């Protein structure tokens, strides 16, 4: 041990010198026991000969239980083989070694330690002892794991964002406080007519001047107020062409770091096809001579064309969200109420097939009724029936023509009978 090594080096027979060496050994023990780290001394073969007081307190085992090869039993089972191999390699190479593995504390918890051991050589150059220390690094390990987990989550988030940016049919961008485009996905290529790589670092005014003219005040508002601007419609010519118009729905959001707004995030959705479809639908619906309206699965009005408004006397806004059966087709021609459960439109929705009715009456806003012929077809939303579409026409004139035709035919028959009687 330490005392033996020092004593053997000072064999002179001088009692004063011997007393001085004994005092030095006590000082070394005092110093070793004061260290808040595990410390030990072992023989050249690894047999532990001395441990400091911290080992006894940390392991909760008496000193003799920590001597010899008792340290092996304290190592975590998953680390034991690696620890023994590290020691064997150091002993074979006769070089210092460092390693990290877990040992069991007195309360049974395994905690990570950093192990260091160096050989002490005698005058002949051969290893006389090994002196080692072990420091508790559990908190550092936990911090490293937390950092790795945070880095992994950050990498996953960035990967997800990049995937969304590249795959989503939506424009994403980030503009700094100097209005330079810092990030953008490939969708912006269709806006500016240039590869995204050539746009990064340029100002919005340089990259897409037509858009900047419409959005400069919005960017400045977000930076000045820190408030989002959502749902702004933009109309531009695609790639600077004069023919054709694109409609976009843009939203602008403040991007903050530690509470400070560092720029503006931009999300742009292309509404061109939807706008074109709505325009086409509006033209078709408004130019139809027949009335058309749609209602949801509860029978509430969702939309109505101009012909329907003219025939019913109500505007779309007046009936929007109201049950059409309770207002328009709740009665028969003689005023008899029609229960909602017997409404043919309910049947069309329930059976999922078109229904045609030729002898119904609708009620106008002024309370008057008029005969209609209508068809009701299920309105499919995905794989479910979300409502019905009703197309109807006023057949008052048709009924009048039929009445006149019947009257004329009746008169003709009477006239024929008169001639036959006279003959």
Describe the fold and architecture:
The protein is α+β, with helices and mostly antiparallel strands. It folds into three domains: 35-136, Beta-Lactamase (2-Layer Sandwich), CATH 3.30.450; 168-272, Beta-Lactamase, CATH 3.30.450.20; 288-401, Beta-Lactamase (2-Layer Sandwich), CATH 3.30.450.20. 43% of the residues lie in helices and 29% in strands. It has 16 helices and 15 strands. The chain has helices at residues 2-9, 15-34, 53-59, 71-74, 77-93, 138-167, 187-192, 196-199, 204-207, 209-225, 272-287, 306-312, 316-319, 324-327, 344-351, 396-422, and strands at residues 38-42, 48-51, 97-104, 110-121, 127-136, 170-176, 181-184, 229-236, 246-257, 260-270, 291-296, 301-304, 355-363, 369-381, 384-394. The strands form three sheets. It has a five-stranded antiparallel sheet, with helices on both faces. α1 runs antiparallel to α2. The radius of gyration is 46 Å and the shape is elongated. It starts with a helix and ends with a helix.
